[in-house]
# Entry
Amino acid sequence: MGEEIAGVQWAGVRGMSEQAVELLLIEDNTADVELTLHVFRKHNFTNHIHVVCDGAEALEWIFGAARDVARIPKLILLDLKLPKVNGLEVLARIKSDPRTKRIPVVVLTSSREDQDLFLCYELGVNSYIVKPVDFGQFTEAVRQLGMYWLLLNERPHGPEQSDH
# Structure
């Protein structure tokens, strides 16, 4: 089935739960996954988290889930430097598909490259956060993004709404 980290199955599509996923975490660094999950659980932001560790698994899971509107996540946390398919390609696919373009995507990355920042916003990212190196700062950044995107932010619900 895959590796379990902090009570969450970390195996991509193979470990997918039938419960509604509130957060999709796309991250290949085990330490960052563990810390992010710890912060989200500590602050009771979400109980339904799915983790995938590369871009190919992310695309397979997202576009499989997009066929079932009830399984579309409330939030996607996306690292840019992923194996197989990079985060920019994943972001481009998410934001170019009418079924998934309204899902908030937050890039949480170590990249401070201006080009990455620019391209992410060109592709429609909702937020771009550079991962702090310091444990305390990383924890606080994840807490704040969870607070905003999962508790405070309002999203449209229901069927696809027209852009007109």
